[in-house]
UniProtKB/TrEMBL annotation:
Superkingdom of source: Bacteria
Protein name as catalogued: DUF3383 domain-containing protein
Entries under InterPro entries matching the protein: DUF3383 (IPR021808)
Pfam family, one: DUF3383
């Protein structure tokens, strides 16, 4: 028998773990009332996935709210791939249903409830607060006529804006039940890994939703209160039959839907990138400038991705150190690799890295144009 080479050469194989993947921000969920399904085998407290509205019709009557929500969701262009429907437990409140799904690990980002729940302002506000705290986006539609009345300050939009939850918007329509859910469906197709993929909700088309033609008072009231609406746009007798206008959330910070949506995605991508940078090292990430640089590079890669997809963009800013005006491509990482050498003994003993300080500059979106024509 020959002498084994393994006795001379000892090979140790180090395998990188797969790490975490980024979240699916296209996942939408309808919370259906416990008695909505026509299928007796659909158990309350569980969910099913559907790829078309026709599939939803197999489990829900076509006159039901879940089917109406599915029609709106799958009417969006480009069409979403799936819709998730959770059947509520009979005795649960709306917030308990929301939390039950979350606690069971059922993933979704956008969500809606049936009209019976949405008709109660207190439930709407409670869902907005609970969803916001859990990082879920409530794509809510209201048929309240008072939203369009400037003399009324007790409508649901005014109440929601006063509450200030970030992850909710109120779509106002006289008759359509799920206008807002179709707006959410449009956002659900954004692929943050693709170039120039981020969007604004403003001026989007909603196939299957009736575009309204309203009074100037109704338009100005909805804009001032913060309601989203879908309307006919016209000039000189020419009509554009249907555009989303005033695509804002009820956020205290005055954010548009895409401001909140994109920042949620950016935060998730950054979390995953830094987690994977920490954990996918077969040995260890050293508590040295070289180790700190790995984390800085991971953060920079996310910054580059979000420049590419259009969330971040060029901006003039004042440098904190020099006071000079500089041009950023879309983000600036202020932390240096050598900052880890400044850790205190306690911070070093706790195995921490130097905190990464990063400034990001949103590319934003142009919604209006002013032009002055000087006639000679």
């Amino acid at each position: 028998m020959a002498y084994p080479a393994e006795s001379i050469i000892n090979i140790t194989t180090l395998i990188n773990s797969a790490g975490l993947g980024t979240s699916n921000f296209g996942a939408g969920m309808v919370f259906a009332d416990f008695d909505s399904s026509s299928d007796a085998t659909f158990v309350a407290g569980t969910y099913r996935d559907y790829g078309t509205a026709a599939q939803v019709a197999e489990d829900f009557n076509i006159a039901s709210d879940p089917y109406a929500a599915a029609l709106a969701w799958f009417s969006a262009i480009p069409k979403p791939k799936t819709l998730r429907i959770y059947l509520r437990i009979e005795e649960d409140t709306p917030v308990e249903s929301l939390n039950d799904a979350i606690n069971k690990g059922i993933w979704f980002y956008w969500f809606e409830f049936e009209t019976g729940v949405r008709a109660v302002d207190a439930d709407v506000l409670a869902l907005a607060a609970a969803g916001d705290a859990a990082g879920k986006f409530f794509a809510y539609t209201s048929n309240q006529s008072t939203i369009r009345d400037p003399s009324v300050t007790t409508d649901i939009v005014t109440k929601a804006v006063t509450q200030g939850s970030r992850r909710v918007f109120v779509a106002s329509h006289a008759t359509e039940l799920y206008e807002g859910f179709e707006i959410a469906a449009v956002f659900s197709r954004v692929n943050f890994n693709a170039s120039n993929s981020t969007i604004t909700g403003e001026y989007k088309k909603l196939p299957g939703i009736d575009a309204e033609s309203l009074t100037p008072t109704a338009y100005s009231t909805m804009k001032s209160k913060g309601a989203v609406f879908y309307t006919v746009v016209e000039t000189g007798g020419e009509r554009d039959n249907g555009r989303v206008i005033n695509s804002k959330t009820t956020s205290t910070f005055g954010e548009y839907i895409d401001d909140v949506f994109n920042l949620d995605a950016f935060t998730n991508f950054m979390t995953v990138a830094l987690y994977n940078a920490l954990t996918k090292v077969p040995t260890k990430l050293r508590q040295t400038p070289a180790g700190q640089q790995v984390l800085i590079d991971a953060a920079a890669q996310v910054g580059e991705k979000f420049i590419g997809n259009g969330y971040l963009g060029e901006r003039l800013y004042l440098d904190d150190e020099t006071g000079e005006e500089k041009l950023s491509r879309g983000y600036e990482i202020l932390t240096k690799a050598e900052d880890i050498l400044l850790l205190s003994d306690a911070e070093r003993a706790a195995r921490g890295a130097a905190p990464i300080s990063m400034r990001i500059f949103r590319a934003g979106a142009i919604h209006t144009v002013d032009l002055t024509a000087n006639v000679e």
